[in-house]
Amino acid sequence: MKPTMLGIGMTSQRTRDRLVARLREAGIVNNEVLEVVRAMPRHIFVDEALASRAYEDTALPIGHGQTISQPYIVARMTEVLLEAGPLARVLEIGTGCGYQTAILARLVKEVYTVERIMALLQGARQRLRELHIQNVRFKHSDGSWGWPEHGEYDGILATAAPMEVPDALLQQLAVGGRLVIPVGPRGDQELLRITRTETGHDREVMEKVSFVPMLGGAG
Ligand code: SAH
To answer: Does some domain include residue 21?
Structure first.
């Protein structure tokens, strides 16, 4: 592995261990998720000027008015998605820098990820290649349509918040599958866990969150 991926000083293993300790304190219990977070070099997903802050439990800018999600929220959403057992096929809406994508890729069989901003998608693709992650497929599109060709999915995770849950995402969920998605206007969003049952969808509110909006069209 290149030394830049192992990290030194503020990006060292000790710094990552501190982040994992902090996530545990914040209530993350899935050890598999915590180990994947510990091993993932988050500093390569942000601009070099921000690398020293990559292991703080905070969202950071990634350009184009977007942010890399806070590690706590990445871990929490992943944990909630995995609660029902091992997942084969997961759809992610909002690739961004690819950090959440990379975490998912280490924990499930296949990840399908959709991003509307081409430059972000290309950056994410490049980083995952450097990390030798090969079970991810990328698409440049408006993710509110999902990615019907590869559905149904055992899990769907959205990292941008629509005003309402898009129908397409509900339809592309397999029976027993779950959709984890922030919904609502800026400043008043809730994280939902929606499970598809034989007869419909069960909807639970998890916690208050703050995500960038899910926008229409390909940017
Ligand atoms: N998981 C990402 C979060 C990025 S922020 C990370 O950790 O980096 C949310 C992302 O959703 C942004 O990159 C934004 O461009 C994207 N996005 C917003 N609306 C979208 C839409 N309708 N379809 C696909 N991607 C969308």
So the answer is: no
Asked whether the beta carbons of 70 and 18 are under 8 A apart, the reply is no
pLDDT per position as a tens digit, 54-69: 999 999 999 999 999 9
> What is the pTM (predicted TM-score) of this model?
0.95
pLDDT(85) > 90: no
- Structural domain including 121 reads 63-209
Q: Which atom of ligand 1 is nearest to the CA of 62?
A: 8
| Domain count across the chain | 1
Q: What letter represents residue 170's amino acid?
A: L
- Using CA atoms, how far apart are residues 162 and 182, in angstroms rounded to an integer? 7
Distance, in Å, from the CA atom of 175 to the CA atom of 94, rounded to the nearest integer, reads 23
73 belongs to a structural domain: yes
Q: What is the CATH number of the domain that holds 103?
A: 3.40.50.150
Distance 114 CA to ligand 1 centre (A): 8
